Predict the 3D structure of the following.
Amino acid sequence: MFDLKNKTALVSGGSRGIGKHIALALLAEGANVLVGSRSEEELHAFVREAGSPALAGRALDVRDRASVREFVQFGLSRWGQIDILVNCAGVNYRVPAEDYPEEQWLNVIDINLNGAYRMCQEVGRHMIERRSGSIVNITSMMSHVTTPNQSAYAASKAALAQYTKLLAVEWGKYNIRVNGVSPGYIVTEMSKDVLLQPDFQQRIVDKTPQNRLGSPGEIADAVVFLASGRATFINGHVLAVDGGFLAGHPSIYVNPKPEA
């Protein structure tokens, strides 16, 4: 349905969780996929597991401009062009705002927001030259609403949603579409410690009209759609894939236990 043959996609944060499912979904639709992660061990394991010549892994630290540039150049040297960029690298750190350590604040902002900025800029220059491309930034429920103990994460994801729209406005004239996907509550390596708390999970399920948590594959399907030729007039949109969570409960106040 979403034929991506002869397309090349770059996915940051793609060796685990939602990013890994996105990479596999793009691969399944025929794209060449380059996955980036700080964990080379995870990258090698993922590439071996997938067993496809169309999938490659490369070390990537989105906090470092040189690492981002090398990653992008590797994709260009291997496949000659970049058609799709998915920014999925992200971290979270949960602690009350009055005690939030500055070092953690800066790290979260640098990965979640500045990392996407670096990736978009390096890939965007290539896409501008080609007059073609699709970028999908993975935002969050925290781009729209907030919950306690996630001040840096909420700030970074809200800013990323606005940056997504800004790029859509600036780069639309180059036939580059820039959209975002805001995952609902999905159990991943980053979120499982919170979402597997039975009381918190039940509160989330109760506030979700579909009465369940989502799966990483459902986020991946939305990303593939936005990246594909089936979405050629969708630009500057941040799509919530959340089972109706935001529609049913635009004002929420669920409070997981902060990290120790």
Observations:
- The radius of gyration is 18 Å.
- The CA atoms of residues 203 and 254 lie 7 Å apart.
